[in-house]
Every structure is written in C-alpha cells, then in structure tokens.
Design goal:
PRD_sf, alpha/beta, 15 strands, PTrfase/Anion_transptr, Arc Repressor Mutant, subunit A, 643 residues, PTS-regulatory domain, PRD
C-alpha cells in the first residue's frame, strides 16, 4: 500500500479543513474509492486513538491526530526514499566507499534490494559531475567536495518537494549528530542580526536555505572535508563578501564550534549575498545600482514594459524595475553556480494569485530569451512576489466599492459615524455620500452599498443595517456584504465570457490520461479544426507549459500560450472520468484557453475567476458529475457561478 498516497490524502484533508467526499479524494489521488477507504484505515493505524481521519455520511475530514499521523510517517526509515537517502549519505560520509554486503545487513534488506537502490543512486547522479565507482563489493562516490555538498542539499530539497506536507530540510544534514537541531535557532537569530548590522535587509523566506548550506558546510568541515581555497566567483559576485564572510566565520565558531576555511567562507558569503539580502543603509537604491549590471537592468526593463502592455497592468516604475533587476542578477549568479533558492510560498501563491503568477511567467519567458535565464517554479514565485507587491495598490483600487451612509441628522452623529466607517472599512469601501434624511430619494443612493441606520424600502438588496455608533458586528456584516458583491460581479463577468467562448465542438469527455503535451495537442486540435488557432499556437502552449505547470488548483489546469494570437477567443474543455496526471499532481478538468488580441481585457477575468470556481471542491464535483455531456457541463457551471 502506497505510504505516499496516504500522505497525500492526509495533506488534502488538512488543506480543505472540511468534509471531502470519497469520490473526490479518489480522483485527487488517482485511485478507486475502495483504495481511499484502505488508506484511511492505514492512516488511522498510525496514531493510538485512530482519529487521524474522521469518516461520515459527507465523506472524510482531518481528525484531531492528522498532523501527528504525518509526523509519524516522516520518522519512518524503511521506505525506498528513506533508504535511498541513507545510502547516499553513507556514500558521502565514507571516502573509502561502502561494502555492499555490510550495508545490506545494516539496512536490513536483501542484496538484490540494495543493488536496486544503487541503480537508483546512479539515476540520481545523472546530470551531475558525480559518479559511482565499484571494485568488487566496494562502491565509492567520486567527485569534488563542492559537488558532493550540492548532492546533499539536493536530497534535502527533493524530500521537501516530494512531500505533501512540511518536512524538516535539516534532517539529512544533521544526520551525523555533529551539529544539533537546538543550535539552529540561535544561529539564525545571530545571522539576521549580523546582516542587519552590516546594512542589509534579510529575505526571511530564503534564510532557511542558507542555514542549510551553513550546516552542511560545518558538518563536512568537522568530518575533515572542507573546500580547497577560495572558489572562483561569478562576475561581480565578490562585492561585499569579505565582511559577510568574517561575520559567518565568527558565528560558526561561536554558535557551532566550527572553524571554517577561506573556501567555505567565500562560498557561504556568496550564497548570502545572492539569496537572502538586499541593500539597506541610507540610500539603498544607490547601493543597488552601483552593483547592478546595466545589461540586466535593460533586459528587465524591456520584459516589464512588454508584460505591462500584454496584461494591461501598471509595472513601469523605476524603483520596482531596480529591485527586480537586482533580484534577477542574483538569480543569474545562482544559476551559474547551479544553485537555486527555494520558496515555501510557491504553491499558495500559484493557487491564490494565478494572474500575478502568469505575469511573472511572462517576464521570466522574456528574460529567458534576452539573458538565457533558466528557472523553476520557486524562482518564478519570487518574481511573482515582486510583481504582486507592485500591483497591490492598483488591485485594491479595482475592488474598491462605493457606499452611501444614511444617518438622520442629529448634532454631529453622522460625522462621527462616517469617521468610524472610514477608519474601519476604508481599505475596501469608499464613502462618497452621507444622507441625513430619514427618507432619501432613489437618486441619492446610487452607490454599490448603502450603510443605513434606519430601514430603507429602496435599495434593500444593497442595504446593510448598522448602528449609529458602529460596532464590530456591523463592520463584519458590511465586510461580508462587500465580499458577496465583489464575488457576484466577478462571476457575472465570467458567466458572460464563458457563454461566448465555450462550444460543444471543443468539448472532450472522458478526457484520456495521456500526459500534458498529448492532452494539449488533443484539445488544441479541436480549435485548429474550427479555424480558431493554428499549429504554432499549440506549440507555444506546450512551450508555456514547460516553463511552469498550469495546474493552478487540485482540480483544474489552464494551458495557454503567452501570445494572444487566436483568430477568435475560445476555450477547449476536457473532463476526465476520474483524473489525469498533470505536472506533479492530478487534475479533473483541463481548459485550454486561446485568446485573441481583441479580447485582451477578458484574459484576467476568465483566467483568474475560472481558477477560483474550480478551487472549490464541492463545486468541482457538481460540475464533473454533470460533465458527461457538454450541455450538462455548461448548465452546472453556470448554476455554480450563479450560486
């Protein structure tokens, strides 16, 4: 029975934090409902009270011991993945090699199993500068110390990527016991403080990755495996390394009891400067520009200008471009060193802000053409965070609702009420009028919302009754009404757009589980037959998919090209009988979107709101159940949108 699928089941239930129907869980995992029941039984057996997963008429939900069950799983060491990591760690630690028979006995496996594990190690080493050498029963790992450390770091990150729940990336690095987990928190605090004293702002999202490299370096040095001399730097990457290197050396002596040599300190200082810090001081912009490559700044500016025009967003700001260019420069240096920064927010950013993530993909695609940039989803997520920060103000303006306050005039009561509304709700609601009459005319209440202290027969659907002295309960009711109104408007636009773009000729059910590229060709072929796109659009869609998976939720993938070259906007939809593999997960619906230049405005509406609709598990199941025919699919989709 697959422990990995048990973990995915637990993780899905923890994310939902509500009842999930058995058939939906089966689709998410790519198994049968009977297998789901077996997984639930196995998961509950991990904890004493057997309440990791609760079953009921509505399906399953995470129980009181769900997280404890995940922790129990992570401590298990007999799985093939855990055994592979143990084997690699042994090869890294034993410079003279390991004996195959002795290692099989120590791991309590047969010699045939260990030979199979060694074959997996060889596959793991493909594309690296490391290799296994064998002399009869002794196997050795050959390669430079730097490459061996990179392998250890890769293993830790692969374990994080493969898990469907948070895992400790330091577990492998601390395996020898030379450094304890209790030493990490004081080391992190001292590192952040030291960088602040040197005039840098610290990126907390990436500091864990740098700590991991410091721990790996310290552990290897204690084992007599330090880097020889100062390693070669990438262009311009040595600026400012000396004070940072001295600070890291001092902290490792004080916190870990390790004396690092010049090679290790230079390597770690570069990691810090290209991963977790940005210039501080009295004039950070001047400091940043002083160390910024003009060619990189020009490429970033061009990419930002193009994305601004393509997606009709306001990104053309000098301060934003400077910050992003500095980030891209560090990104290029990390790529040259075959080192990448992990982002713990990648998954949530992609699901919650698909449009911002898409703009980031467009910028990265342009930089790939101009600078040869090669990045993964984690690095794209960092670019998305820069873009999201820049767009936040304009996004708030787009969602701002207007309101009229109706409060009978009595001394300054209406002025006090308006002041309190502005303070409590001003970020999402703009009060444009205050009416002091008891019976306002219809022409006086033409705003999105009416906040009234008296019952009103007119505009009842937009009216929220509040107290003359605003209470916390009033604030919550207004916020809820505003949220419902915003959602209704967004989905109304989506319903209007979808009715124009969907057609029975471009509907496939059941969608075969062929893999991303074959499904893209299948759905794209329907639009080619209709004369809406050409084969080049399909190839561009595949190229976009290779940049970053378009599975923006557990249920939906939206493959599309970055270029809006369709003759007319259309969406080809495929609905799986269960689910199909897509990226590292599975989805139930694939909507291949082809947009034309004339419908550029609709891209954000359709793209972002479609992801929102298919992010709700219950809605997905309703739509999929009716998806045996195009008419049933469209009817249920509209019903879900209408609420």
């Amino acid at each position: 029975m697959s422990s990995r699928r048990q973990d995915r089941l637990l993780s899905a239930l923890l994310r939902e934090d509500s009842w999930v129907a058995g058939p939906r869980l089966a689709d998410l995992l790519g198994v049968t409902p009977r297998s789901v029941r077996a997984y639930v039984t196995a998961v509950n057996a991990r904890v004493p009270d057997g309440d990791a997963v609760v079953s009921g008429s509505a399906g399953y939900r995470a129980g009181a011991s769900a997280r404890a069950a995940l922790a129990t799983r992570t401590e298990a060491g007999s799985t093939p993945r855990a055994r592979l990591h143990t084997l690699v760690r042994s090869l890294l630690d034993e410079e003279g090699g390991i004996d195959v028979f002795d290692t099989a006995d120590r791991l309590h496996v047969s010699e045939a199993t260990l030979e199979a594990d060694l074959a997996r190690v060889r596959s793991l080493l493909d594309g690296t500068r490391l290799a296994l050498e064998r002399d009869r029963d002794v196997v050795r790992l050959r390669g430079t110390e730097r490459d061996q450390r990179r392998l250890l770091s890769t293993l830790a990150h692969d374990e994080m990527d493969a898990a469907d729940f948070p895992v400790d990336p330091f577990r492998l690095a601390l395996d020898t016991g030379a450094i304890s987990a209790e030493q990490l928190a004081p080391l992190k605090a001292a590192l952040v403080a030291g960088l602040g004293e040197l005039g840098y702002y610290v990126n907390e999202l990436a500091i864990g990755d740098v700590l991991l490299h410091i721990v790996i370096a310290s552990d290897r040095v204690l084992a007599g495996r330090e880097l020889d001399g100062a390693e070669p730097a990438t262009d311009g990457a040595d600026e400012g390394t000396d004070p940072v290197a001295r600070m890291i050396g001092r902290l490792c002596r004080e916190q870990l009891g390790v004396d690092l040599g010049a090679g290790d300190l230079a390597h770690l200082a570069r990691l810090v400067l290209t991963r977790i810090v940005t210039p501080g001081g009295t004039d950070p912009a001047a400091l940043a520009r002083a160390g910024l490559d003009a060619q990189i700044e020009a490429a970033v500016r061009a990419a930002v200008v193009r994305a601004s025009a393509d997606y009709q967003v306001d990104l053309a700001d000098d301060a934003f471009i400077l910050r992003l260019a500095l980030h891209v420069q560090n990104l290029l240096r990390r790529a040259q060193e075959e080192s990448h920064a992990r982002n713990p927010l990648t998954r949530s950013l992609k699901a919650a802000y698909p449009m911002i993530f898409e703009v980031a993909v467009s910028v990265v695609s342009e930089l790939r053409e101009r600078l040869g940039l090669r990045v993964d989803d984690d690095e794209i997520a960092y670019v998305a965070m820069h873009i999201g920060g820049r767009l936040e103000r304009s996004r708030r303006a787009e969602t701002l609702l207007t309101a009229t306050i109706v409060c009978p005039g009595y001394y300054e009561l209406h002025e006090v009420l308006r002041s309190r509304v502005d303070r409590s709700l001003g970020q999402g609601i703009e009060v444009v009028r205050v009416v002091t009459a008891m019976d306002p005319s219809a022409s006086e209440i033409d705003t999105d919302l009416v906040l009234s202290t008296v019952p009103l027969p007119a505009a009842a659907e937009r009216t929220v009754l509040i107290q003359p002295f605003l209470t916390e309960a009033d604030v919550e009711r207004v916020q809820q009404s505003a949220a419902r109104l915003r959602r209704a408007r967004r989905l109304a636009r989506l319903r209007e757009e979808l009715s124009r773009y969907l057609s029975e000729d471009a509907y496939v059910q059941p969608l075969p589980d062929l893999g991303e590229e074959a499904i893209i060709r299948l759905l794209g072929g329907r639009l080619v037959e209709s004369g809406l796109i050409d084969e080049e659009y399909i190839e561009n869609t595949i190229r976009r998919e290779r940049l970053s998976s378009t599975a923006f939720s557990d249920a939906l993938a939206v493959p599309h090209a970055l270029q809006m070259t369709a003759r007319r906007t259309a969406i080809a939809v495929g609905v799986a009988a269960g689910s199909v593999a897509w990226g590292s997960g599975r989805v139930q619906v694939v909507a291949l979107a082809a947009f034309s230049e004339q419908d550029r405005d609709a891209f954000q509406t359709v793209f972002e709101q479609l992801v929102e609709v298919f992010g709700e598990g219950e809605s997905v199941q309703r739509i999929v159940r009716r998806g045996a025919s195009f008419v049933g699919f469209l009817d249920e989709l509209v019903a879900v949108i209408d609420g």
